[in-house]
Amino acid sequence: MNLRIFFFIKLLVLAFISSASALVIGSDEEEIYIDANFSGKNLLVFGAFYSDPSQARDDKSDILIEVVGPSEDVVIRKKESFFGFWLNSKSVGFNDVPGFYYLSSTNEITNEFLNENNIGLLNKKDTQLIDWSALNIDWGNIRNEKDKESFYDALIRTKEIEDVYRKVNGEIDIIDGNLFRSYIEIPNTVPVGQYKVNLYLIIDNKISNEYSYNFMVTRVGIEEAIYSFSKNYPLIYGLISLLIAILIGWSGAEVFKRFRKV
Amino acid sequence: MSIYLPIAELSVNIFLLLSLGGVVGFLSGMFGLGGGFLMTPILIFMGIPTNVAVATSANQIVASSISGTIGYWRQGLVDFKMGGVLLIGSFFGSILGVWIFSKLVALGQIDTVISILYFSLLTSIGMIMLIESSQVIRDRVRRKTVKRKIHYHNWAHKLPFKIKFYKSKLYISAIPPIIIGFVIGILSATMGIGGTFILIPAMIYFLGMPTSKVIGTSLFQIIFVTALVTLLHATTTFAVDAVLAFFLIISSVIGAQVGVLAANKLRGEEIRALLAIIVLGVATKIALDLLVEPNEIFNISVIRALF
């Protein structure tokens, strides 16, 4: 399977040889189905790059793969101690944050580069102040810059623990100088919706070429059917839940009655 | 073997679920308690979100109280008129309860409020059971039989809107049962309990109902309160997990039958004392979760996502 793919890419590379730097990518899936037994999946992203026909890939060129999941609104709450009780107090709402974010590069990419090119979400370590205006945030009663940052850090930290935010390097295999492939781990906690894959070819610290494509993550199976039914027809769902309870409760009493008489 | 719960959105071990339902059902069959007061906190300890635990417990209690009511009804021990008057109060109580519940979810305070409510409830139940069972054991050792007099206040007879309850041989105002029903409705909607252990003493001491009719009547009204709470949660908080409820119902109905059989053969006091200790243990765990500084003081909740 892989051999065939690479042969195919080889052909494509030859076709692109005329242009100065070319980028071709593909993926083994256009849609990922998540059912109850889904335990995660390694999504294969592969492609070819060609910076100069006369020479193979040199150390100055890098590949960056970014995967951005569907956006969601979240609230981060901070617990504080009130008379010994730890209660939720201050909260910040982050709107339109990606439900999944993955950034992978051949070599480590500096944050300056990411900031300059508007790539990345986890790129704040080196910058003194984050440009909050780029994000849609409801700060509530938080004014202090340091507090703002602690809430933002908490968001990233929680998402990293959930395995839905990841930043890695050195996980892209370079084969034969001009071909690359990478397995992107999609854990079973990912949200459903449309995902965007952005691929960048970086030469001499500049984006020389980029390419994007989309794939879908969809939930399937009986569990998904129950979930969407409960959202779309809540009253009928509630009545069915009741009916099940009544039937089992009733038949339990009947079975017991007979059992007792014997 | 794990099963994925579609509303709670997590996988749990199926045998763990069945044994939880079985044990809670056994205890409820044995002691005539609903068992919701143990079911909800244990579900929360298992990682089930608080709103799902509360709403699904209510659904499970519908099944167990139907099972129970049928038995008492056959023996003519259900006062339907009293149950109906209680229900008038419960109807408004549970609507208010679900409204409070969804406000607390929006404020992010539901977990804390539920923890404090459960801590108070379990501590009082545990202490009462422990004291009572140790007294009975002590009396048994001294070979004494204690006759307990049921005394009730007469103020329920002096209020207006008096109704005749033939079955319970009572002629009292409708106001006290409506108020009791109202409180039970709020507790049922916010905590996912039937409220037997509050309802039964309230019916005996405040309304002066005969003890024989109390359990059947309270179970009868609990069917409708928890049914209403289930419907309200399904339509407003979307937190009823049918898969979770199914496994809990199956195992608790079977557990309850075994519990009733066991109650006829075993001496209750020692087991009651053990149950009291379990209840106090759960209360302690809830208190620790509130008092010990958490490792992660930030927590996240997704408000809007594609589905």
Protein described:
The complex is a heterodimer of chains A (about 260) and B (about 300). With about 260 residues, chain A is of the alpha+beta class. Chain A folds into 2 domains: about 220 residues, Macroglobulin (MG2) domain (Immunoglobulin-like), CATH 2.60.40.1930; about 35 residues. Helices cover about 30% and strands about 40% of the residues of chain A. In chain A, the strands form 3 sheets. Chain A has a 6-stranded mixed β-sheet with strand order 2-13-12-4-7-9. A 4-stranded antiparallel β-sheet of chain A has the order 1-3-11-10. In chain A, β10 and β11 form a beta hairpin. In chain A, α4 packs across α5. The radius of gyration of chain A is 25 Å and the shape is flat. Chain A starts with a helix and ends with a helix. With about 300 residues, chain B is mainly alpha-helical. Chain B has one domain. In chain B, the strands form 2 sheets. Chain B has a two-stranded antiparallel ribbon with strand order 1-2. In chain B, a hairpin with a 4-residue loop joins β1 and β2. In chain B, α2 packs antiparallel against α3 and α7 runs antiparallel to α8. The longest helix of chain B has about 30 residues. The mean pLDDT of chain B is about 85. Chains A and B meet through β5, β6, α3, α4 and α5 of A and β1, α3, α9, α10 and β5 of B. β5 of chain A pairs antiparallel with β5 of chain B.
